[in-house]
Amino acid sequence: MEFLSSPYFTEAGWRPSASPVPYFQGALVFMTIVYLFETYLDVRQHRKLHDKQFPKPLTEAIEGLGNYSIKKKESEEESDDTKQESESEMSLLAATQNKFDKSRAYGLDKSTFGFVSGAYNQLEATAFLLLGYLPFMWTMSGKALLSIGLDADNEIYRALMLLTLTTIRDTLVGIPFGLYSTFVVEARHGFNKQTLGLFFMDKIKSFGLFIVIGFPVTAALIYVIRWGGEYFYMYVWAFLFVFSVVMMTLYPVLIMPLFNKFTPLEEGVLR
User: Fold this and answer.
1) Which residues of the chain form beta strands (DSSP E)?
2) What is the model's pLDDT at position 83?
3) Which residues, listed in sequence order, are joined to residue 91 by a DSSP beta bridge?
4) pLDDT-flagged residues of the chain (< 70)
5) Domain-by-domain residue ranges, the chain?
6) What residue intervals traverse the membrane (predicted)?
7) Which residues of 3-23 are buried (b: 16+ CB within 10 A; e: fewer)?
8) So what's the pLDDT on residue 2?
9) Helix or strand or coil: residue 193?
10) DSSP string over 237-269
11) Cα–Cα distance between 221 and 180 in angstroms, integer?
């Protein structure tokens, strides 16, 4: 079990901790316990979604409202006038049961996909910890800086390169899961309004925002930590607080319109 005592890849000069506390093994055990507990809860919810029986208290509550009916959408109506009139309305209870069935089917698909993606994420996190993914990427970041003529000993440069490499990897790995979730699960239930081009354009925009916002913030954060001395955590808190307030103001005005289309609310009761 020696491979569980430390990562496979370590930087030059690395030495095992002299502490008797097995932090490395503890992290592995903690990750596994959290995953198993969350999976247990998800399995319980998944089993509940298989229950096709409409909740009896809800049935009684709807029936207690009286004999209400809901008109169906025009696109769902038949061309024949007689049949159109007979199928244009359904009871409130029937409409609610229909929504319940659709919601349950959507929940099952989401839950099944969640099991697959969750298992992959757990395996990936465990493998990264055992193999020493972050030390390896830190070393690769230094080599990448040297290859473009920058100082590999500069902490800010190296941290930014590390973020860039890991973000690119995470984005590429996440694309298959994102494609399946958007164009299979969501589309199957009529929730997807996105095209393939927009999907990849959003990825490009996200990476661009990461560079425009993430780079300066990361560089400033490292500078604050180095400058702050013994009480650096107080300055870091103040910096992150100010940044959060600024982002709360700018996000709905500048960032959200990049990914969503907004139209002014029409004049009426709500405006």
Assistant:
1) 69-71, 89-91
2) 44
3) 69
4) 1-3, 68-69, 71-88, 271
5) 1-10+22-67+90-131
6) 23-43, 156-185, 206-225, 231-254
7) eeebbeeeeeeeeeeeeeeee
8) 58
9) coil
10) HHHHHHHHHHHHHHIIIIIHHHHS---PPPSST
11) 36
